[in-house]
Design brief:
This protein is of the alpha/beta class and 277 residues long. It contains seven helices and 14 strands. The chain has helices spanning 12-20, 41-49, 61-69, 110-116, 152-172, 174-179, 207-217; strands spanning 2-7, 24-29, 54-55, 74-78, 93-98, 104-106, 121-128, 138-145, 189-190, 222-226, 229-240, 250-253, 258-262, 265-274. Helix 1 runs parallel beside helix 5 and helix 4 (110-116) packs antiparallel against helix 7.
Length: 277
Amino acid sequence: MKIAYCGYDFFHACLNELLTSEYDVYRVFTFPCDNRFNFNQYMHAICKKHNLPLSEERIDDDAVKELEAEGCELIITAGYKYKIPALNGCSIRGVNIHPALLPVGRGIWPLPWTILTGQAQSGVTIHKLSETYDAGEILAQQQFSLDSSERLESLSAKAQLLATRLLRTVIRDFERYWENALPQAGDVVDWGMPARQHRTLMWQNGVEELDRICRAFGKFGCFGFFDHRNWVVYGLSAWKEQHNFAAGSVVHKTNTEMIVAASDGFVTLLYFEPAPE
């Protein structure tokens, strides 16, 4: 089966799985990344190692026609930034690897929402590409439990490991999984892209909420105003304690940390930097 793979480093192990299992991946598509928060360095390295053509150009209708003319049989997307044009009437089939338990968690970045909304479980879904984002029939889905202290990084790691295993299972018996795919069942929850307000630490909130926001965005950072300026916060430690300080006031500084008062306790800011002007 001739495969075109589309993605970036988040699910790069899925591409490696296909190549080490000697599936016929003959073209790879990615997109420009800042290589600070989003990366495609592994994609470039993998393609160089296997002598695969790699494009950062968006797949449009002309690109789909070109793939079809080349005999491409399957497009696999895994964290691909762009919408693949409709494949209706095309000989190419398409599947997407999504880090959520669809139909809950549709959207481009479901992982922070998984933590923000207090989900007890998450997982990975492999589904058919469809005209509506993340709405296609499900080939396979598997879940895992979340810890009460789950961070974006640990959730991402769980999803990445599971995605590789699930793809291995599906691709080995692809025709059966494709033919037995089922429509998504249950209430649709489309989380969309988190806005700045969802990433902002409001000091009048309780420490549990502040901790949850920071865990949800991890290395991407959340925003907070303290010590007379705006900051990006990447890590904190919080605890409940009665006090008489105004919420948002800096009550103590060390050489590398600041302690800020919240409504019901204190927050030690561990990793932070000034926000861009």
